[in-house]
Amino acid sequence: MEDCLLLDAGSGGRASQRLISQCFFRHFANPLLERMDDAALLTDIHGPLAMSTDSYTVTPLIFPGGSIGSLAVHGTVNDVAMLGARPRYLSCAFILEEGLSLETLERITADMAAAAREAGVHIVTGDTKVVPRGACDKIFINTTGIGEVFANPVPSGHSARPGDAVLVSGAMGDHGLTVMGSREGLSFLTDVASDSAPLNHMIEDILQSAEEVHVLRDPTRGGLATTLNEIAEQSQVGILLEETAIPVHEAVRNGCSFLGLDPLYLANEGKCICIVPEDKAEAALEAMRRSPYGKEATRVGTVTEGKAQVSLQTRIGGRRLLGMLEGAQLPRIC
Amino acid sequence: MEDCLLLDAGSGGRASQRLISQCFFRHFANPLLERMDDAALLTDIHGPLAMSTDSYTVTPLIFPGGSIGSLAVHGTVNDVAMLGARPRYLSCAFILEEGLSLETLERITADMAAAAREAGVHIVTGDTKVVPRGACDKIFINTTGIGEVFANPVPSGHSARPGDAVLVSGAMGDHGLTVMGSREGLSFLTDVASDSAPLNHMIEDILQSAEEVHVLRDPTRGGLATTLNEIAEQSQVGILLEETAIPVHEAVRNGCSFLGLDPLYLANEGKCICIVPEDKAEAALEAMRRSPYGKEATRVGTVTEGKAQVSLQTRIGGRRLLGMLEGAQLPRIC
């Protein structure tokens, strides 16, 4: 292989075939993908299905705790899982900039393959476009996932009920702060790493253990505060959070306070919000804590009657409204 | 709405919600999409499934006969259909450049919605990223489609057999030449327009009428010659084409001869290659001709024993090998 990607690799001809077989097939190896028909044939998947898509444009491409490759698998696997589904298959579409280092592409492809293996999903169909220098920033990846829904009822942002317990699977803000620190070269942020992780196995355990789960959502762009606001609106309920109960890692708290950021609005890529009836809260928390990705799971609040808004019981005993993120704290976080 | 897209619209907060509801929901309107959970819940789809993905980066965004919006629906719908499947659902992920004209985005979204309606598919889940100026070229769209496979056996590039008839549903090269002409402002190319079209209804008719269809492929990037080479390799057969039988519109032939291009290597976005047993050829051609997109359907060659290669019986009686496209004739054609 050449050192840098040439425009020809997106032509659909021999040069495309070489890139596909030498890089993508080698890492993603599976017989469904290798058929090379216009679409993948999936004979062993049964509805109801969950389907979700995300394009990943994160910069830098590689950051502490992950890369655009692992993120592109985790993000979509998690979105599918949040519907109470077992993620099964992913599509993967690359938009690559002419001149991209093939070593970087190889590293990112290997990260995707490793993440897919851990999550137990197969990448079965793909697409590669190469655009001229300056037409995109190095590499964008789209993944679309489908999975088999097994939860009944299906968790939804519309299903929170007054009295429900609001749980999170761990600390908030690690991914957002890591990407920002890594992009800006903030050397004082040495103790932070992205939480990017596949949550599907943990989700399956939560659903089996707690039996009745009203809401599952992952607080990505906009963070915990924005996602809870969406749920409050969808379900037409209030949500009351205990500030002291929300887990935030020391390094993230310090970094945020230095930079004037609020960790409750920072993106997470390996956390879930889980809203369950009060009497299922303990079972759900225990299931989370059994997972390597839920060790710091905890209860952070309660669903209440009344106006669709999120309130925070503060450290010093007051109450303040936690609005939805208005604009961008930081673009290209995922 | 403002006139130009702001970075905030990709934040995941209120500004994102406004773009989604004012533009995407308005055009794509359907209850599955509007649930706004992390994934779409699809309760009425049954396997076996076909799944296909494509990212669209075509420039210019709007060209005679279509736009990146209609193309993004047709391309993926056709790929799913080529597996002998009924396309049902699409995901849609936008990567948008800060500063993009909202009027352009609206026009493209409307084109997607119209194309989806004609094809009978629903856009059920989506994603919107906004990247800073210069990080992408205006707008890239990924669509991923799933459909229900009804053909039995399932058509595949691996299934061509010696003696089969090779059919095409119409003239070659219109899309590729149109995009090139439109990009370069070639004023003498006035009589060409993209053939971009949804082929799923025609495909369904072909499969029902011809009963046994060995191969269905759409000759997009790399054109007829490259796609037939892929089939020859996959099936380990020869393919012999009659040059005089291959339909090429007069304006495309003239444009290609002026520009030194070969229409057999130019992309098509509304055509299919159909390989069937000799005794099914008439039924398949009749089905194609019943469709508004197959009026010029015709037989162009025969599958032969022997080496996996494509040969052309030329106008003057000789034979020449038609190789696979090596590099790029033209980047960003789709």
Automatic annotation (TrEMBL), chains A, B:
InterPro entries: HypE, PurM-like_C_dom, PurM-like_C_sf, PurM-like_N, PurM-like_N_sf
SUPFAM superfamilies: PurM C-terminal domain-like, PurM N-terminal domain-like
PurM-like C-terminal domain mapped to chain residues: 161-308
Gene3D superfamilies: PurM-like C-terminal domain (3.90.650.10), PurM-like, N-terminal domain (3.30.1330.10)
PurM-like N-terminal domain boundaries: 37-149
Biological processes annotated in GO: protein maturation
NCBIfam families: hypE
Family: Belongs to the HypE family.
Protein name: Hydrogenase expression/formation protein HypE
Organism of derivation: Desulfovibrio intestinalis
